[in-house]
Amino acid sequence: MELGRYSIGIGDRFAHQGRAQLAALVRAAEQGVAITPVWNKSHREHKIIGSSPASVRAEADAAVREIGWQGPYFVDADHIHLGNVDAFIASSDFFTLDVAEAIGQAAEPEHIETFVAAMKAFMGTLHIEGLAEPLPVTEDSIRTVARRFLAAAEQAGRIYRHIAEHKGSEDFITEVSMDETDTPQNPGELLFILAALAREGVPARTIAPKFTGRFNKGVDYDGDVTRFSREFNDDLAIIRFAVAQFNLPADLKLSVHSGSDKFSLYGPIRSALTRHQAGVHLKTAGTTWLEELIGLALAGGDGVQIAREIYRRALGRYEELCAPYATVIDIDADRLPPADQVDRWDGPTFAAALRHDPACASFNPHLRQLLHLSYKIAAEMGAPFLAALDKHADAIAPHVTENLYDRHIRPLFLAS
């Protein structure tokens, strides 16, 4: 299976926007840039919405057929582990192995020492092409990495082998996710993480490390862009070196779990990709649902009424909705407008507050983050919400396509 140099995760929580999302990638292809779509949906999202992995496959297949998409496409079992992967095996051909919880757990001491011995050839000072500075490697530094990350690599191996055994083949894309942890991995750690994955027989095609800064849901990056740029550049250099040293797949690339809308990072990422002639996988899972809300609001009538009602209920369940996402949101509750005020908004006013346009004085990032989390409320509405998506499909689809193309694809993959 060929993932391609560029790929993008296009989450669609209510399975209504597959064609609109794919239309954005068709526009990119018309500009000469091939981007592989990867429909992704996590176990948590399925539980909240009441959907199944098979529904994602059905949506992807239908969109591809109706649009006439000729390129590859995939369905991602997003952030899975051994406890929930089985439900995804039949429908998915891309698996994001989430092993962040195993970071810091102790591997068997003899496994650690075996790994350290196997890595002795890399001790000394490594001069890796593209790396900002030489990389000093000692026996102690390798052992430190093994103590922190070897158990996670072994867990990735167990999940990968489980999937391969139950699918009856190894013909699927494997991503390893280590981003949902507190501390960014440095170049030396990433190098030996990749070595450990190779020794586990995990043919990773994408790797999602933790980067510096905050990747809050649905809003721009909060952190030091210069430091991120250095980390991203160094990671690309490490990947190229690791592929050659550890016989990893030649198309291994970084995966950026962005939480969507990290506009200030697209320029530095694009520059680094050009410099290294590298690829990237970008996950932009949540903002399609927000574009549905924008489309409903602008449709007026029952559409804007539903948007207002979702906000009212979200405000009343603020603590409940925010708790699972506490590490990836930064909401000032004092800057959330009262529900009675929002009830008086017309569709354009609601859309202006929600749409991610930092140049717009009406944009409210706090409201946007809260609504990003509030798809649970729309799911609880059930048939009335889905009926509104159907009724106003023609109003919603252009916003979905334009958001994906204009705010993500064009600045990251097409800007010169």
Net shape: globular
Mean pLDDT: 96
Q: What string gives the helices and strands in order?
A: EHEHHEEHEEHEHEHEHEHHHHHHHHH
Largest sheet: 8 strands, parallel, barrel
For the termini, the CA-CA separation is: 29 Å
Low-confidence stretches: none
Question: What portion of the residues fall into strands of 2 or more residues?
Answer: 5-15%
Q: What's the gyration radius in Å?
A: 22 Å
Keywords for this entry:
416 residues, alpha/beta, 8-stranded parallel β-barrel, 10 strands
Structure description:
- By secondary structure, the protein is an alpha/beta fold.
- Helices cover 52% and strands 11% of the residues.
- It contains 17 helices and 10 strands.
- Strand 7 (173-177), helix 6 (187-199) and strand 8 (206-208) form a beta-alpha-beta unit.
- Helix 9 packs across helix 10 (301-316).
- The protein is globular and about 70 Å long.
Quick summary:
52% of the residues lie in helices and 11% in strands.
What is the element layout, followed by pairings?
Layout: E1 6-9, H1 18-30, E2 35-42, H2 43-49, H3 53-67, E3 74-80, E4 94-98, H4 109-118, E5 124-126, E6 135-137, H5 139-167, E7 173-177, H6 187-199, E8 206-208, H7 225-246, E9 253-257, H8 263-276, E10 280-283, H9 287-299, H10 301-316, H11 318-322, H12 339-342, H13 347-354, H14 365-372, H15 375-381, H16 383-391, H17 393-414
